[in-house]
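Key result, reporting period 2: structure in, sequence out.
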């Protein structure tokens, strides 16, 4: 395992210099047109040299870059270090999309993602079986949705929450081993806590009760469900106490004031920082996992920036929406 990890880390180190820098992103944000912004992607060789005929087709470049990243990481990622916890997120995303398409004719099937652990065609075939035999957590979610479907079409929210809960249970089981990397455990522990905190504030914001929140509560964080139940009795002021039990304590007041989107930007910056701080430790998982997350984050940031530029959003407003880059 150690030899595979060193090889993987060396491979990503060779590619780190091609990550988008803050300076390059700043140049993109200062351009006067979408065409000029897309030119910066093309100059950077993004998407393996994909050049769209129309700059509004920039998604083709981003999708091509995502596919290149998945292929590269899939070829070097070492086994037995928990890397599958990131890749299975694509599987659960696809389960949601395929299930919505099956029950609601929503067209969600067009939103499928590459890079999962299970081939999409095989996953689709499994979901059509009475016993899908994917894994115990996914199978339980399928059964839960099928039961809801017996009384009518399950809502998209029902599909999302069933598979999201299954995913966090799946990840928790995979990380239960003492040998699982501490960085990975921290990543998903903080991720689960922050999702629950955001859901808590959103639920209060729409006047929802604990039962509504309980349906979207995700396991795997450090804040137990019972603490959220108590917090519902105290109202939004209690969110400050809960946030201060996480590494996102400096953003407690912002979240309590209802700034969920700002809190989620801070969350994503913290999560990628878990790996960035140890990206030079060649005997740890940080370099290869950090690079993988960096590319995902980079593509997400560029998509937000380009969509905003396309729609004429004020440059200062764009900057508020963007996550930090890894480079």
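The corresponding designed sequence is given below.
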């Amino acid at each position: 395992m150690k030899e595979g990890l060193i090889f993987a880390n060396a491979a990503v180190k060779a590619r780190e210099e091609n990550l988008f820098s803050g300076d390059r992103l700043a140049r993109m944000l200062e351009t006067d047109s979408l065409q000029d912004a897309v030119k910066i992607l093309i100059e950077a060789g993004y998407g393996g040299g994909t050049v769209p005929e129309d700059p509004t087709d920039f998604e083709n470049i981003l999708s091509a870059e995502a596919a290149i990243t998945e292929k590269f990481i899939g070829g070097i990622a070492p086994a037995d270090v928990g890397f599958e916890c990131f890749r299975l997120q694509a599987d659960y995303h696809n389960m949601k999309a395929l299930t919505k398409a099956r029950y609601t004719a929503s067209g969600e099937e067009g939103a499928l993602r590459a890079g999962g652990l299970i081939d999409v065609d095989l996953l689709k075939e499994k979901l059509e079986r009475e016993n899908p035999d994917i894994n115990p957590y996914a199978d339980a979610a399928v059964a839960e949705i099928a039961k809801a479907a017996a009384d009518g079409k399950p809502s998209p929210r029902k599909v999302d929450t069933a598979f999201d809960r299954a995913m966090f249970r799946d990840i928790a089981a995979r990380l239960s081993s003492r040998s699982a990397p501490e960085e990975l455990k921290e990543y998903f522990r903080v991720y689960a806590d922050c999702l629950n905190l955001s859901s808590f504030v959103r639920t209060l914001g729409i006047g929802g009760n604990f039962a509504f929140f309980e349906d979207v509560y995700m396991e795997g964080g450090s804040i137990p469900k019972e603490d959220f139940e108590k917090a519902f009795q105290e109202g939004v002021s209690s969110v400050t106490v809960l946030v201060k039990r996480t590494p996102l304590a400096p953003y407690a007041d912002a979240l309590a004031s209802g700034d969920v989107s700002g809190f989620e930007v801070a969350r994503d910056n913290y999560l990628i920082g878990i790996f960035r701080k140890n990206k030079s430790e060649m005997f740890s998982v940080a370099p290869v996992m950090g690079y993988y997350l960096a590319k995902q984050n980079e593509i997400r940031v560029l998509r937000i920036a380009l969509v905003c530029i396309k729609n004429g959003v004020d440059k200062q407003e764009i900057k508020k929406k963007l996550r930090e880059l890894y480079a």
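The chain is about 65% helix and 0% strand. The CA atoms of residues 66 and 160 lie 23 Å apart. This case is discussed further under Risks and Mitigation.
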